User: Fold these one by one.
Assistant:
Number 1:
Amino acid sequence: MKVIMLGAPGAGKGTRAALLSEKLSIPHISTGDIFRANIKNGTELGKLAQSYMDKGELVPDSLVCDLVVDRIQQPDCENGFILDGFPRTIPQAEALKEALDSIGEKLDHVINVYAPDEHIVNRMSGRRSCSQCGAVFHVEFAPSSKGDICDKCGGSLIQRDDDKPETVKKRLEVYYEQTYPLLEYYEKQGLVKTVDATGGVETALSDLLKAIGA
Ligand code: ADP
Ligand code: ZN
């Protein structure tokens, strides 16, 4: 099954993509995670991506498309994948379509993870990530039982630079300008299913499964 998760930054795409990935046993491919791993490892790609990410801007399509097209052709994607954070622009969606067309495949579902802006701003300002394993927590909604230490690996929890309030505002603007049009693009193809992300994560998996008819 080939699934795309769409939604504003901080709407909860990543958490939901991880749940669905586990349930369906297909890879969760997050372009944000790929860039952060590259930044952490000091790669050339990481250096290029960081300057954009820190400003809340999108990394140029030229740096993203080949990376994803290559990733979805790896053997572990044989039974499908969940794309989280890609595509984010119409040209990215076109690049994905071209790659899938060339192997006679198509997308099954586009899940629109919806939450109103005020939820998003709250959610992002309280978000903390583990500096070691990348696990995501929230000071209010999903705290680590060890405070600012990661439950899973003992690493220290930090606020992503791009979760700082000024950058959050910029990321929302960029979302409405560049990514929101993808909803209409995929609606025309009859692929969009919306899930409400204002609630907690308890019902998230069953909502997702209902949305994709599984
Ligand atoms: P969120 O969905 O919460 O904004 P992500 O982890 O998906 O967070 O992305 C973080 C940043 O990485 C984005 O603000 C952007 O700079 C960059 N990025 C991730 N995916 C893409 C993409 N498909 N195209 C361009 N930039 C991207
Ligand atoms: Zn950790």
Number 2:
Amino acid sequence: MRVVFLGPPGAGKGTQARLLAEREGVPHVATGDLFRAAVASATELGRRVAEFLQAGRLVPDEVTVAVVAERLGRDDCRRGFVLDGFPRTETQAEALDRVLSDLGWDLDAAVALEVPDGEVVRRLSGRRVCSVCGANYHVEFLPPSRPGLCDACGGTLVQRDDDREETVRVRLAVYREQAEPVLAYYRRRGLLRVVAGDRPAAEVAAAVAGLAGRHAPANP
Ligand code: AP5
């Protein structure tokens, strides 16, 4: 299975991409996670992208495409992958097609999660992530069993730097500027599957499971 997840910040791309990847036994490849890991380890890539993440702006296409091409070229992606947060521009969508075509692969579906802006702000302001293993929680919708501590590894839960309200507003505006050409790109190719994301995560997952396969019906 080769699937990309599209949608605004906080739409649940990471939540759903992780579930689908686990179910299918393929890697979950999230550009945001790759960039944050690079920043945390102060690599050359991390130094190049830090200011973009901090401001909620997109990392330049050529940097992002190179990171994704390298990741998809690794052995564990041969059986498939679930891409989360990429592509975000039409240039990235075209580049992804070239990368896949070089590897002799096709994309099965582009799943777009739709969530209204008000819900995005609610979700991101309540999101907490584990500082050790990266697991995701929400103070209201998905609280940990012990406040402030990760259920999986006991690590401390923190708020992402770019989940501050003013940065969330920038990220949403950037998404609204770039999203339509990417959605149109996949709509034209018959790969777009639109899923309502403003309902419980398990319901969204069930809808995604029925839509993400190669032979699933396209949305009108
Ligand atoms: P990235 O990490 O990709 O951030 P994002 O797209 O803004 O998405 P988020 O991770 O914030 O949200 P999500 O949709 O994954 O939602 P989640 O499942 O966590 O990118 C960060 C930055 O990296 C960008 O700003 C940019 O600088 C750079 N970047 C990344 N990719 C790039 C690219 N391709 N090109 C250029 N730059 C790039 O859920 C959110 C919260 O809601 C969680 O707390 C969760 O528990 C909760 N939740 C999830 N689903 C539900 C539900 N159904 N009901 C209730 N709560 C829910």
